[in-house]
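Running this now, will post back.
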Amino acid sequence: AARSVVKEEKMLKIGQLVEIAKFRADVELVEELVASVSEHVSDRSRAVRRSVLEFVEAVCLSEKATRVCGAKGLEVASYLGASSAGEGSVGLAIRGLRCAARLLGAAKYGRREPDECLDASSRERLG
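Update: finished.
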Protein backbone atom coordinates (compact mmCIF):
# COMPACT_ATOMS: atom_id res chain seq x y z
CA ALA A 1 0.00 0.00 0.00
CA ALA A 2 2.88 2.37 0.76
CA ARG A 3 4.35 1.84 -2.72
CA SER A 4 1.02 2.70 -4.28
CA VAL A 5 0.85 5.97 -2.35
CA VAL A 6 4.41 6.91 -3.34
CA LYS A 7 3.65 6.03 -6.99
CA GLU A 8 0.51 8.17 -6.94
CA GLU A 9 2.40 11.07 -5.36
CA LYS A 10 5.13 10.91 -8.03
CA MET A 11 2.58 10.82 -10.82
CA LEU A 12 0.68 13.77 -9.34
CA LYS A 13 3.85 15.83 -8.94
CA ILE A 14 4.97 15.09 -12.49
CA GLY A 15 1.54 16.10 -13.79
CA GLN A 16 1.71 19.38 -11.88
CA LEU A 17 5.19 20.04 -13.25
CA VAL A 18 3.83 19.80 -16.80
CA GLU A 19 1.51 22.70 -16.07
CA ILE A 20 4.26 24.74 -14.42
CA ALA A 21 6.74 24.10 -17.22
CA LYS A 22 4.33 24.86 -20.04
CA PHE A 23 2.56 27.88 -18.65
CA ARG A 24 4.38 29.50 -15.75
CA ALA A 25 8.11 28.79 -15.86
CA ASP A 26 10.91 30.66 -17.53
CA VAL A 27 13.36 28.87 -19.81
CA GLU A 28 15.93 28.12 -17.09
CA LEU A 29 13.31 26.59 -14.83
CA VAL A 30 11.98 24.46 -17.69
CA GLU A 31 15.50 23.03 -18.17
CA GLU A 32 15.69 22.25 -14.44
CA LEU A 33 12.27 20.58 -14.46
CA VAL A 34 13.15 18.43 -17.46
CA ALA A 35 16.36 17.30 -15.75
CA SER A 36 14.53 16.61 -12.49
CA VAL A 37 11.65 14.64 -13.99
CA SER A 38 13.98 12.63 -16.21
CA GLU A 39 15.57 11.15 -13.07
CA HIS A 40 12.41 9.05 -12.69
CA VAL A 41 12.95 7.34 -16.06
CA SER A 42 14.10 4.10 -14.43
CA ASP A 43 11.39 3.96 -11.77
CA ARG A 44 10.05 0.46 -11.19
CA SER A 45 6.49 1.61 -11.69
CA ARG A 46 5.33 1.54 -15.31
CA ALA A 47 2.76 4.22 -14.44
CA VAL A 48 5.49 6.58 -13.20
CA ARG A 49 7.57 5.94 -16.34
CA ARG A 50 4.47 6.66 -18.43
CA SER A 51 4.06 9.96 -16.54
CA VAL A 52 7.68 10.84 -17.30
CA LEU A 53 7.06 10.20 -20.99
CA GLU A 54 3.88 12.31 -20.90
CA PHE A 55 5.94 15.11 -19.35
CA VAL A 56 8.57 14.83 -22.09
CA GLU A 57 5.89 14.81 -24.80
CA ALA A 58 4.19 17.88 -23.37
CA VAL A 59 7.21 19.95 -22.37
CA CYS A 60 10.12 19.12 -24.66
CA LEU A 61 8.18 20.08 -27.77
CA SER A 62 6.72 23.25 -26.21
CA GLU A 63 7.81 26.78 -27.08
CA LYS A 64 9.81 27.17 -23.88
CA ALA A 65 11.94 24.08 -24.39
CA THR A 66 15.57 24.65 -25.32
CA ARG A 67 18.05 22.39 -27.11
CA VAL A 68 19.11 21.14 -23.67
CA CYS A 69 15.50 20.07 -23.04
CA GLY A 70 15.31 18.46 -26.46
CA ALA A 71 18.49 16.46 -25.90
CA LYS A 72 17.36 15.26 -22.47
CA GLY A 73 13.88 14.49 -23.80
CA LEU A 74 15.37 12.48 -26.66
CA GLU A 75 17.52 10.54 -24.19
CA VAL A 76 14.53 9.80 -21.95
CA ALA A 77 12.17 8.84 -24.79
CA SER A 78 14.76 6.58 -26.41
CA TYR A 79 15.58 4.90 -23.10
CA LEU A 80 11.90 4.33 -22.33
CA GLY A 81 11.32 2.96 -25.83
CA ALA A 82 14.17 0.48 -25.60
CA SER A 83 13.77 -0.57 -21.98
CA SER A 84 10.00 -0.95 -22.22
CA ALA A 85 10.37 -3.17 -25.26
CA GLY A 86 12.76 -5.36 -23.30
CA GLU A 87 10.21 -5.65 -20.50
CA GLY A 88 7.41 -6.57 -22.87
CA SER A 89 5.55 -3.27 -22.45
CA VAL A 90 4.94 -2.80 -26.15
CA GLY A 91 2.58 0.18 -25.85
CA LEU A 92 5.01 2.24 -23.79
CA ALA A 93 7.89 1.19 -26.05
CA ILE A 94 6.10 2.37 -29.19
CA ARG A 95 5.05 5.61 -27.54
CA GLY A 96 8.61 6.28 -26.34
CA LEU A 97 10.09 5.66 -29.77
CA ARG A 98 7.43 7.80 -31.46
CA CYS A 99 8.23 10.63 -29.05
CA ALA A 100 11.94 10.25 -29.84
CA ALA A 101 11.16 10.40 -33.57
CA ARG A 102 9.08 13.57 -33.10
CA LEU A 103 11.92 15.18 -31.16
CA LEU A 104 14.37 14.24 -33.93
CA GLY A 105 12.08 15.74 -36.54
CA ALA A 106 11.26 18.93 -34.65
CA ALA A 107 12.24 22.04 -36.60
CA LYS A 108 13.20 23.80 -33.37
CA TYR A 109 15.99 21.28 -32.79
CA GLY A 110 17.46 21.40 -36.28
CA ARG A 111 15.16 18.82 -37.87
CA ARG A 112 17.42 15.85 -38.46
CA GLU A 113 16.48 12.73 -40.32
CA PRO A 114 16.82 9.54 -38.23
CA ASP A 115 19.60 8.29 -40.55
CA GLU A 116 21.68 11.36 -39.70
CA CYS A 117 21.74 10.29 -36.07
CA LEU A 118 23.25 6.90 -36.76
CA ASP A 119 26.96 6.42 -36.88
CA ALA A 120 28.53 4.59 -39.84
CA SER A 121 28.67 1.19 -38.11
CA SER A 122 25.00 1.39 -37.15
CA ARG A 123 24.03 2.25 -40.73
CA GLU A 124 26.06 -0.75 -41.95
CA ARG A 125 24.31 -3.15 -39.57
CA LEU A 126 20.89 -1.87 -40.57
CA GLY A 127 21.73 -2.23 -44.26
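The mean pLDDT is 84. More later if anyone needs it.
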